[in-house]
Protein 1
Amino acid sequence: MAVIPVELAGRSYEVRVGSELLADLAAQCGPLLRKKRVPIVTDNNVERHWRETVDGSLAAAGFEPRWMILESGEGAKSWTVLERLMDWLLAEEVERGDHVLALGGGVIGDLTGFAAAILKRGCGFIQLPTTLLAQVDSSVGGKTAINTSAGKNLVGAFHQPSLVLADLDALTTLPAREMGAGYAEVIKYGILGDRAFFDWCEANGGAVLAGDRAAQEYAVTESVKAKARIVAEDERETTGARALLNLGHTFGHALEAQTGFSDRLLHGEAVALGMVLAARYSARRGYISEADAQRVAMAIGSAGLPSEVATLGLNCNGQALAAHMLHDKKMDAGTLPFVLLHGIGEAFLDKQVVLADVAEFLDRELERR
């Protein structure tokens, strides 16, 4: 088992990566579970695979699991579901010193973390990520949120978990498409700040997606280490360092909005395509070579992820996609910073981007074949 500390001022926590962590849940959580009743939030897909394991571990240690089971999908990150969850947590008499368990992917982690952030002005929670994307990205760093009609993740809070258990066994239950979506966030760490890790991803991405346990452990561990370093440096995105983690997200969120935040385009797929667009737009502005931009596109495409906007069949133009970006939460004084590249492994924040130029660029991408 790998243990990666997330070092924050006065409230550090561990991310543990390995096998059989859910089967050993009671021991792993240790003193964090201070009451007999343990509230667990999950969705119906995850519950089907892991309830028996979690129940067995907790019950054997004298705990009483209490389950809130939600419908799977992005729709759970809503005001309506948040209200249901809050009412349930209050009925379960969760106190500020208690911990709520978030068992699932990024949707469950984001929703449960936000609920924990606002319940009685803040209680504890433990991330139990069951998707590759959640293990390498959303479960680490304390960003929690729900979606609104205006856009994705626009209502939320920074609220760090007390512990993250990334059980690699959970990856065996994922469909290939979900694994690919998570892999997009793995390769992101190479593209934004570690060319050597990008090289490793090019050589070993197939093994990660095929279920090679050693490759998966290395991919998750190195990704978490990279994110932990950035979060420790800039927990609340005040210096610009953490903003680099948004590589691909500004383009990606616009594509998600255009496709209705639906299964038509998973979040990781949107980020993957967004990174291709960021690389190509960096080349358009003369920051990187066309060869490097093409290398990014090929690495993403070879993992079975979308690398061309035209394949989505969107009924819109570049201006419509750029308009979605006006709702981006990173908008500051009318300016939207873009994470672009000086090279593979060299991301930076460009605050001089004009959305009209982005719209023109996207018009060309919509026609690219």
Protein 2
Amino acid sequence: MQTRPLVLVQQPEKGNYKADEGVITAIAVYSGEAPLSVSTKRIFDGETRFSFPSEITQGATKTRIVYSYKPEQWRELLETCSMPGVHGGIKQVMIPLLKYFQEAYPGVFNDIQHNEELDPDFLAEIVKLK
């Protein structure tokens, strides 16, 4: 049975990000292999085209998936990945990230809706990097 992943995410710098500033990086770490739905490369349309995820590293005992995007790209990704028909493995990582971003960057992410009924024991654990 796959254990829930850890998601390492950078903490915001002073103040709140604006939609056109900086890059926010998150790293999902899985024990063993990541689900295919999460590790498959995808392209989303927006002002700047980008792949999801940005890097995948597999080892003997874990898989690390890196997501590194500007806030407007994160917004597009999180809006897409919080839709009802999205695979559970993607929601497992993206819903906790969305909740974190809504708290850390409210001006950019607060209006994105998601399924509140997901089992908290299923969702990834967020670890804030300093």
Protein 3
Amino acid sequence: MFKKILIVLFACFSAHLVAMDKYDTAMGVHFGTSTGNGYSIRKWGESNAYQVTFAAYTTRKHRDYGVTRKNSVSLGANYLWGLHDSERYKFYLMTGMSYTIRRIREDGLWRSSDHWTVGAGPGFEFEFSDRFHVSIELPMTYNDKDDITMYIPSGGFYYYFK
């Protein structure tokens, strides 16, 4: 009996996916100061979307006086306010923030260099096929580490699935 219930639920779920006109959930990579750098998931609703970005990486540099090592984690959360949706592109207002956790080791000592960035600005998502999309954004950003405010472009490559 349990198998039959699972089969019926699977069939209903599959029929729902096939009935959808447009793809609304994407996974890809995104690069930007206010959006975060790394792997990204984007989910569109009726007209608005949210996006989360995550990356963890380590770098090393050999210098005359020793080795410098950086361990970093980048987290981003963004909300996309849909302004226009055509057949081949979307125009939206991006708002969001990212937080970078960084630990640096120089001369055997660890120090922290964490910072956050916020931003808002226009963006476009271009549809190259039903599943492959490219986004380009130009948010005005503020970075607490460098205390700067300026336009810093961001962008991403996405694969949409049902």
Protein 4
Amino acid sequence: MNRFALRGLLLALFLVLAASAARAQNVPDKVTVRQKDGSSKTFDGTFTASAAGFQIVAADKKVLATVNPDDVLKVAIGDLPGADRAQVLANATKEEKRDWDGARKGYEDLLKKVPPTQDRTKRHLEFKRNLAAQRAADELDYEKDWAASADKCAQLWGDFFTDHKGGWELWPATRSQARIFVERGKFDDAARAWNRLAKSADMPTDAKTEAALQEIDLNVRSKSYAPAVQAAAEQLKTATGARKDRLVIYEIAAKAGSDAKQLEGVEKIRAEMNKTKDPNVHATGFSMMAELYLAGGKPRDAMWSFLWVETVLNQDREEVFKAVSRLATLFEAQMDEDQLKKYREKLKRYRGSF
């Protein structure tokens, strides 16, 4: 073979490899989203978060869908420059088999090889590593060092937020960290987690508003009444519908707690709830009444209000998880070992939904 033929062969081989590499670098994400009728739909595109919303964008930049992040059931990530795709897929298989520790180690190995310039890849792999670590901790019982493992996971999320200020992963990451803080009874830390998200430039307006409501809720639970009063008043300037109804309840609860008139606040919340039949507003109402009962030294009344949230007004998983967490603490204080064991098991089951 002469040198010209050899050059031609090498050029052809280079073009084939380049085309193959280009295809490998244009693998779309597969984003499975819950539809309004309860079914699911999978979109092929890049999942992004920006002021415009949580969006799935096609290769030609067309927006395929703008979604509620809590309706996203699964994201099978596509293009991750700098990461070996075969290893990424192998980790996904480990996750499907619930080999959480194996997945965590796999993501750590991948992260060692990612160039520092590949921020999206690094962010996603760290997100998946932290999530795998949290899932491994979630399967532990209270008697088997769950608390210590959960605290380590919360710190991992803290490091993640220090390093990454944008990306769709911030929303589920915040939910995951806040859930740990709620179960650990650290409502002030959970409030700070949502406050940080509410200030993110990459979050859509609706997401920032929901984060602000979560912060107000958790400030009431941690008895940080003054910032809750101020934030509720600010949000009420623009709120409408059910969101406005919830904010009115938060404002009543925060003012009652601040004035040490908790039981008067309970009656005001009850009167406000009677103005609507929205179950989510009622769930917020019963939760805030329970918190005021607790602050007012009436744990039995608080228990019945939390039970109402858990068993009747249970459409909102956030409210239910907070109620179940509070109930576990109440039964522990009452030294009711049977109920304590029952509610700790419920908490363990609920962890997987966040």
